[in-house]
Amino acid sequence: xxxxxxxxxxxxxxxxxxxxxxxxxxxxxxxxxxxxxxxxxxxxxxxxxxxxxxxxxxxxxxxxxxxxxxxxxxxxxxxxxxxxxxxxxxxxxxxxxxxxxxxxxxxxxxxxxxxxxxxxxxxxxxxxxxxxxxxxxxxxxxxxxxxxxxxxxxxxxxxxxxxxxxxxxxxxxxxxxxxxxxxxxxxxxxxxxxxxxxxxxxxxxxxxxxxxxxxxxxxxxxxxxxxxxxxxxxxxxxxxxxxxxxxxxxxxxxxxxxxxxxxxxxxxxxxxxxxxxxxxxxxxxxxxxxxxxxxxxxxxxxxxxxxxxxxxxxxxxxxxxxxxxxxxxxxxxxxxxxxxxxxxxxxxxxxxxxxxxxxxxxxxxxxxxxxxxxxxxxxxxxxxxxxxxxxxxxxxxxxxxxxxxxxxxxxxxxxxxxxxxxxxxxxxxxxxxxxxxxxxxxxxxxxxxxxxxxxxxxxxxxxxxxxxxxxxxxxxxxxxxxxxxxxxxxxxxxxxxxxxxxxxxx
Length: 506
Fold this sequence. Notes:
- By secondary structure, the protein is an all-alpha fold.
- It folds into two domains: 10-216 and 301-505, Growth Hormone, Chain: A (Up-down Bundle), CATH 1.20.1250.20; 227-290.
- Helix content is 76%, strand content 0%.
- The protein contains 22 helices and no strands.
- The longest helix has 34 residues, at 346-379.
């Protein structure tokens, strides 16, 4: 039995999405300034992708777990998702205050891990929140509203270092080598405040629907959580686990024999870890413990709905492109256009500031595009809309290599902003219609695998490409990202959006 969901008013959708404004304050500051902080603390450019791996690895671990347990949470006052909103907001705000005060590179990498984990604790339930609260015909609008707040929060957050420098005369250069500029520090403090306040606004202004009679009892009953066809899944888990472990070991030996970049060991380790996960799931079934969430996560990974599988390929190439952009835009712009790779020079810091502003622009454009995309999707379709947006964004990234005057970079980022708005809304709108309501948070967490896995792969191979294929010129990493995003757009044509057919027929 499921709860009948009435149409919500504009104000109700606004309130339930408002927390994303602050969440994106945190993500925007992280995306625009983390590489700058790492380089200031002594990181080499070809090691940036490795240091950034903390973020996607954290998301890979946190989101399915939070989704699984938020599906099984219910409190008469706090509801299902809102406890996770509040806890994540508190932890993320503390991490944002700590990040710009890191005294060493290892500390900054560690804080990035904690900060990303905390933001993910809040963010993952927000995706499921739309599916929980809105009827099918309003879900595209709900995810678009989230995109609007993401864009709005990000544009303000991305411009904060420049605002503190230009409006308040706060230093944009560290007092000494290896120190973070005060303009960056104050930006992170403002971001921490905004994240906490906006998320708590959603927590206290929105009420959730109670679970349908019997749903919570079923979720807590071990016998009813036992998976079907245990022997069949045990065999599949063991075969897949052995295959992944074997591939990881062979890849490790290849890296070792040819003396390739150490970052590639991370990819090999990832294959082995995934293999061990499936082998453990198979062993738990042998023990008669298939009711465990660990087993269900493994099962749903290989039995996800067809639409989810098709969207997984689109997500993979979309987020590979985004991760390339977030890591290497600073080094590409400062070295290729501003002619400096030295964080102590004004040229480098001016270029880094411009990157922050450019990130603000693409997020601002995303806020505006998010208001238009639902109408375009009605006229064409969700998948056609997403294909167009990704193709435009990929072209914007590729255009960086043809630009010598920084002014033209603004136009490139307008194109990226259109793609970003679509990435944040359209795939989730298509996905939510294919998921069982009682597992909305769980599946949204599993769906995050296809955001995180390409980021992990990017983090392990981009440094290799930079060194061996692009000879240290990070501008070509952005071109690679652009090609990847356009390919993701082409793959959109394969997605079957069953709910959209129903809605158009309605």
